[in-house]
Every structure is written in C-alpha cells, then in structure tokens.
C-alpha cells in the first residue's frame, strides 16, 4: 500500500511548480478589476496558451491530478480551462466538424464556458426549459442559463437544451455548442458574494447550424451526466486546501492572541492538528479516486465521496483559520489585490470564508452526492425526494 | 501509487476471517504491519479477543516467549495501570523506562481488576522491579507506534462491520410501509459513515505501508499518530451512528452493535489518547524548522 505518486509524476510536479512560480510572480499586476478572483483576460489567455504549448491542457490520469493540484495551490487561473470544462464532451461526442476547435482547446487558444443551470433547474436538471427546435437544416435556440462561470471571457458555450418537449429526460435533451458572438446571445454579468464574476446567458432565437449539436440528438442527458463525472479529478480542491492549511500553520507559528504566542496555545495547536489530520485524510481519498480511475475506470460513488469530503474540508479550514485569528480573520482582501493592514492570512482567511460557501452547492449539491453514495455504494435505493 | 491489497494479503484476510468466525486463533501475531493490519481488521469485525493486541505489542517489543502475555505501559513506582488482558496473562511485560521493559512472572505481581468497556480482564498490576526475570532494551515508543497502527486497523474492522450491519437493518426494517433506507436522513447518515470508514481505512493502511517500507522513525511515528487520530475518531462516530440506525434492536445485549461501540471507545485511549496524537502532529508542524 503506497500513496505516493511515482518519481516521474513527482518530477512533473516540480516542473509545473517551477512554471507557476515564474508565471504567477507578477499576477497582482494583472488583477481583474471586474472579477476579484481572476486575472485580466489577456493575461489569463496567455497563461492558457503557455500551458497549452507544454501539453498541459490535455493531461490525463495522475499527471492531470497533480497539475490541477498545483494550479489550485498557486491560485493560477488554469482550472476552468476549455479542456477541463468541455474536453470530455467534445472529445467523446464531438464530430469531425469539431476537430479544429478541439485543437484550439488543447493548445489553449480558446476559452469556453458550460451553461447547464437555469432559473428553474439547479439540482434538478431534468427541469431544463431552454429549447432547441428544428429550423431548416439547423436549430433555433431559446432560453436562459444562469450562474455561468467564465461566460464573460468565453468564445464558446457548451449548453444543453430540450429537443423533445414531452419525452423523459433520457430522450429529451441535446448538447449544443454555441458561438458566444452569435446574434441573439446576450451575456449579463452576475457578481457573486465574494467577487466572482459569473454571468447569466440569454439565448433569444439563436440560429444554430446542424453541426452545433454535440453527440447524438436526444442523448444530451446521458452525455451531460458523463461529462459532469469527468469534469475534474477532485485534486484541485486539495490544492486549495493545502494552500490555506499552509497559511494556517504560518499564522499559528508567528501569530499571538492577547500577547500569548499562538504556538504555545494548546487550543490553537490542537486546531492545527485537527486540520492536518483532515487534509491528509481527504488527500488520501482523492488520490484513491485518481488511482481507481487510472487502474479500473472512474468510480462515481468514490468521486462523490471526494466531492463531499473536500468541499466540507475547505469549510472546516475557513472556519478554523478565521476563528483562530479573531477580528483580523474578518478583514477581507481580493485574491490578487493588496491586503489591508492587519488582515490575517493576507486577507485570505476572510475571503475563504465567503468562497467556500458555493463548493458544497455547485457541481451537484452535497445532498445529491450523499444520495448517490447511499445508492451506488451501499445499495440504498431512495424514494422520491 | 498502489492502493490495492496484494492477492496474498487478500488470502490472509480470508484466512483470518475464517479463523475468527470459528473462535480460532489469529493466523499471525508478527510480520509486516500491513499483514498485521489485515488480520486486526478481521478481528475488529467480529469484536474478537483483544489479547491479540497484547501479543502483537509484545512481539514488537522483542519478546518471543510462548506464555500468555500482557503489556503495561502506564507504569510508575511499581504500579502499572490499565494493563489489558492481565487477568489471563502468565507473563507481564512492564515498561520501566522509555527504553526498558521488564519481564515479570504472574507469581510476582498482584492484580486488581480494572474492567473497561471492552476488556473485562484489564487490571492494575503491582510489581517489584527487583523481581523481574529479565529486562528488554527497546525503543518502547517505536513499538507502541506500530502497535497503534494495528489497533487502528481493528477499529476500522469494527466500523466496517457496524456499517454493514446498520445498512442491512435499514434495508430490512419497515416503518410507515417502507424500508428505513428510503428516508433521506437515514441515507445521508449511511453515506457519512461510509466516508468515515473509507478515510479511516486509508489512513491506517498508508501508515502500515510507511512502516513496512522502512521509513525513518520520525516518519513512522507521525504516520501512526495520523492513523490513530483519523481512524479512531471516525470509527467511533460510525459505531455510534450504527447504534442510532439500529434503534431498539441494536441495544439488545445479544446484538453486536455495543461490542463494536465499546471496542472503538477503548481504542481511543489505548497507545496514547487522541489529544496526544494530535499534539504529536502539532509539534511536527509548529515547533521544528520550516
């Protein structure tokens, strides 16, 4: 039983780290004034191209996991790349018409977003109302998608729409690739509680040609489920966790409370150890999920367990860091901005406290993940919710 | 990364399972830490005889005699407190310094019962160091760190079995015309239990693997602390949740639920308590050079 990545993968990790150290050194000069969690569009695209040149946007298996971990740990905007978001769908279901787009995705020359969620369809995506009706050789797309990550910077949008009005979910939906510059596509910024700039997208009679459909017409539901399962390795959460945990250790090493160094405070020491134990435990199960995917194919229940454990770990870290740093822990800075005086963790602890709210909600709320674990791993068939 | 048990380890698990289910002895009490963990996990599943752990620790200390042995670690002024399985032992290994363990015969000690939640044979052992037959020079902390990994594997087995029994119960038990398993509150508790078990199991086998591949003592002791801090807390929670799910049927003395529940509670304070494991981890992170 050995949880270590092999030496070759660790060498790759060092290579990625060295790249990120150099590439992110002047990140604060490129902070995006509109998106407090991001870098400006040009800088972000340059980073994507540089990663693409190295072949790092189309990694798989352990290398992909290590890449995502290091990228998250460095706060580099290389997680929601076109390949991460749409790579599975385009690779698996795309046709020859998508070959040049795929090439651009791999080389980091194109930005994409995925738009599934609607005002009336969040956890229950079967309620999706956006529709695509046949129109000559192509389709006419109408509807509204909300809370879309990266929509303001995206060139293309991967979305899902109802193509059979009455059918059950299994046959009702089709995946489409939409050019964000197409007439009828309107993008409205939607700032979130912690400075993310998400967006709502309205499709008003957007004309799509036949090639816009990705995969089989009517099979969008199955394709979407598979794409969501394959979206990320889960290791990126651990990269964030490691970053915050390192800040916590540093805070306790140098900080004080009412004149007493935190490093001599048994409660602070115990809190650090508790977090260390949890970070290590969740990192192990994340590695197990990666290893399982590589050796025998993805285990959906295991991936759900990773999602639950990792997103709740990040909330534990956010609570522990802010609790241990008192009022200084409530002083907020944006991700690449300057920290106000006295901000604990450089303002990161307060930011984490806001940022980690959405993790347990998005990409399948943790309640759905727990249901999936109960059903898939324990054979507990559920009733209607 | 290699996260599977080997076919040999799987066979060892099956052998141990068969032996313990018929009340037989453990197939081994010395060997690689992963092998010992494999056996201990099966022992925990059936809430089997805790004397296994005394014997494992005795071998790790370097004792090889055929007698039934008990090990006392909490020793001061000729009194060893909370010595597991002492009432049945014929030989006592009693720590007298961080690097010395005395070998004392049953005839040279006095026993006062200290029955614990899981061990009716636990005793206070009073002895005269002068009466020791022998003294073993050993790094006691290193032996205890390894025994703790094995004990944590026992807790994992207990938690796994408790989860399985609870899942069987909620599938079979009908209330309001449907199995309890259809209730989301029940399903979510089960999912959390599985997560606890999975994280505990990996912490234990990671630590066992680290010890087996000859990592330095600092790393082994740290891995042991992580294994105990992870496994004992999570497994204890699982055994408590299993009780909650099993309801009135689970509190029956003839049901196994309370044996798993007691066993993991006692593991929590054996070979160091949770606070000491976490303090060990905190010291490694906070007190050394960066």
Task: Report on the architecture of this protein.
The complex is a heterodimer of chains A (385) and B (290). Chain A is globular and about 75 Å long. Chain A has three domains: 7-106, Butyryl-Coa Dehydrogenase, subunit A, domain 1 (Orthogonal Bundle); 112-223, Butyryl-CoA Dehydrogenase, subunit A, domain 2 (Beta Barrel), CATH 2.40.110.10; 230-378, Butyryl-CoA Dehydrogenase, subunit A, domain 3. In chain A, strand 9 and strand 10 (260-261) form a beta hairpin. Chain A is built from twelve helices and ten strands. Chain A is α+β, with helices and mostly antiparallel strands. The two termini of chain B are 27 Å apart. Chain B has two domains: 63-137, Butyryl-CoA Dehydrogenase, subunit A, domain 2; 140-286, Butyryl-CoA Dehydrogenase, subunit A, domain 3, CATH 1.20.140. Chain B is built from eight helices and ten strands. The model of chain B has no long low-confidence stretch (mean pLDDT 97). Chain B has 290 residues and is an alpha+beta fold. Chain B is 55% helix and 15% strand. In chain B, a hairpin with a 2-residue loop joins strand 4 and strand 5. Chain B has a four-stranded mixed beta sheet. Chain B has a four-stranded antiparallel beta sheet with strand order 2-3-7-6, with no helix packed on it. A two-stranded antiparallel sheet of chain B has the order 9-10. The interface between A and B is large, with 49 and 47 residues.
């Amino acid at each position: 039983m050995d949880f270590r990545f092999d030496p070759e993968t660790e060498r790759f990790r060092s290579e990625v780290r060295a790249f990120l150290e150099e590439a992110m050194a002047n990140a604060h000069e490129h902070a995006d004034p509109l998106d407090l969690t991001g870098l400006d569009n040009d800088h972000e695209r340059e980073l994507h191209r540089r990663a693409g040149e190295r072949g790092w946007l189309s990694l798989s298996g352990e290398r992909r996991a290590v890449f995502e971990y290091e990228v998250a740990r460095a706060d580099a905007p290389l997680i929601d790349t076109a390949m991460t978001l749409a790579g599975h769908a385009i690779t698996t279901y795309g046709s020859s018409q998508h070959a040049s787009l795929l090439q651009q995705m791999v080389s980091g020359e194109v930005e994409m977003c995925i738009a599934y969620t609607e005002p009336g369809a969040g956890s229950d995506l079967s309620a999706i109302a956006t529709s695509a009706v046949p129109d000559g050789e192509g389709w006419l797309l109408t509807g509204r998608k909300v809370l879309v990550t990266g929509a303001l910077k995206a060139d293309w949008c991967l979305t899902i729409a109802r193509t059979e009005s009455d059918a059950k979910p299994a046959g009702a939906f089709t995946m489409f690739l939409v050019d964000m510059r197409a007439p009828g596509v309107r993008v409205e910024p939607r700032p979130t509680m912690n400075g993310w700039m998400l967006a709502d997208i309205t499709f008003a009679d957007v004309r799509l040609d036949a090639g816009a459909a990705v995969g089989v017409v009517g099979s969008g539901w199955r394709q979407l489920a598979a794409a969501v399962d394959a979206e990320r390795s889960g290791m990126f959460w651990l990269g964030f966790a490691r970053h915050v945990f390192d800040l916590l250790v540093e805070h306790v090493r140098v900080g004080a409370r009412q004149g007493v160094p935190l490093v001599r405070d048994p409660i602070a020491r115990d809190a650090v150890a508790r977090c260390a134990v949890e970070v290590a435990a969740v990192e192990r199960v994340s590695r197990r999920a990666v290893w399982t995917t590589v050796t025998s194919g993805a285990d959906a229940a295991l991936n759900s367990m990773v999602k639950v454990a990792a997103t709740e770990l990040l909330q534990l870290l956010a609570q522990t860091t802010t609790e241990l740093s008192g009022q200084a822990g409530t002083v907020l800075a944006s991700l690449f901005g300057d920290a106000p005086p006295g901000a604990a963790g450089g303002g990161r602890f307060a930011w984490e406290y806001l940022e980690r709210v959405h993790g347990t909600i998005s990409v399948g709320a943790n309640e759905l993940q727990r249901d999936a674990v109960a059903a898939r791993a324990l054979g507990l068939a559920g009733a209607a919710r | 990364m290699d996260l599977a048990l080997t076919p040999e380890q799987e066979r060892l698990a099956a052998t141990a399972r068969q032996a313990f289910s018929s009340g037989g002895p453990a197939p081994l009490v010395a060997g690689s830490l992963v092998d010992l963990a494999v056996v201990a996990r099966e022992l925990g599943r059936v809430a089997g005889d805790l004397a296994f752990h005394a014997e494992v620790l005795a071998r790790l200390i370097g004792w090889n005699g055929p007698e039934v042995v008990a090990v006392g670690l909490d020793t001061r002024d000729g009194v060893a407190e909370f010595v597991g399985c002492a009432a049945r032992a014929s030989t006592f290994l009693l720590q007298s310094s961080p690097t010395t363990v005395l070998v004392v015969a049953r005839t040279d000690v006095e026993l006062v019962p200290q029955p614990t939640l899981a061990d009716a044979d636990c005793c206070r052992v009073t002895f005269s160091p002068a009466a020791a037959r022998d003294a073993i020079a050993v790094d006691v902390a290193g032996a205890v760190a390894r025994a703790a990994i094995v004990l944590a594997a026992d807790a994992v087995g207990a938690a796994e079995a408790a989860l399985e029994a609870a899942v069987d119960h909620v599938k079979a038990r009908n209330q309001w015309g449907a199995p309890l398993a259809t209730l989301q509150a029940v399903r979510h508790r089960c999912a959390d239990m599985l997560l606890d078990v999975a994280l505990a199991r990996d912490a234990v086998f990671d630590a066992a693997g680290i010890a087996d591949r000859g990592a330095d003592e600092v790393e082994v002791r740290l891995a042991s602390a992580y294994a105990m801090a992870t496994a004992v807390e999570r497994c204890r929670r699982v055994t408590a949740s299993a009780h909650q799910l099993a309801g009135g049927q689970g509190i029956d003395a003839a049901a196994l639920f309370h044996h798993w529940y007691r066993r993991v509670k006692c593991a929590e304070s054996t070979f160091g308590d949770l606070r000491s494991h976490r303090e060990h981890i905190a010291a490694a992170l906070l007190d050394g050079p960066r």
